[in-house]
Amino acid sequence: MNLLTERSARDAALLVVDMQEKLLPVMDERSRVLGNTLRLIRGATLLGIPVCATEQYPKGLGSTVPEIASLIPTRGSKLTFSCCKLPEIVEQLHGRGVKHVTVVGIETHICVAQTTLDLLRMGFAVGIPADAVSSRFKLDWEFALRRMEHAGAMVTSTEAVLFEWIGTADSPKFKEISALIKTPLT
User: Fold this and answer.
1) How far is CA 67 from CA 26, 35, 54, 64, in A?
2) What's the pLDDT tens digit per position in 135-180?
3) b/e per residue 111-134 (b: at least 16 CB within 10 A)
4) CA–CA dist 113, 147 (Å, integer)
5) Contacts of residue 12, Cβ cutoff 8 Å, sequence gap at least 6
């Protein structure tokens, strides 16, 4: 199996990086990123895929936005930019036999990129839905995606990830996943 091109619910995880109250309002395309992150969280939950989340310096940057916090009540708090510096995140991934991690959140060129690079070094396959990550400036977002792809991550889209997780139109969850995609962004 090529971990870069094949994903399934049985070996996947979703990592939501720093979608916080004081960060999100200044991000480029924030509505798109929030809406697609919510789609992925709901899709992962429907499919039994583990979902982890982090907060960067919540004392200064606030908590995770309420829409996401209500779906992921437990989130790791960090000062480091890479989520992989939180032992509980890495332990959850290894403990569940995860091979492929889809990383979403903000900021693409800082915490998302450093996390992705660390996950790749640890041997995980990593997918980055370009429509579910953001930075304040489009240039930072664009070059971060290039950098992560060059390092071995697969840059993809929210819709592609959701359909790869189910794998087939005869999946019992196909209609629910299709409905998520058809729902307008928040």
Assistant:
1) 17, 10, 15, 8
2) 999 999 999 999 999 999 999 999 999 999 999 899 899 999 999 9
3) bbbbbbbbbbeeebbbbbbbbbbb
4) 8
5) 44, 49, 98, 99, 100, 101, 102, 165
Neighbours of 34 (CB within 10 A): 21
Q: What is the pLDDT of residues 69-100, one digit of tens each?
A: 999 999 999 999 999 999 999 999 999 999 99
Write out the two tokens for 177.
């996943």
Structure-token match 């592609």, residue found: 160
**Cα angle 54-24-84, degrees, rounded to a multiple of 5:** 25
Cis peptide bond N-terminal to 67, omega within 30: no
Architecture of the 11-182 domain = 3-Layer(aba) Sandwich (3.40)
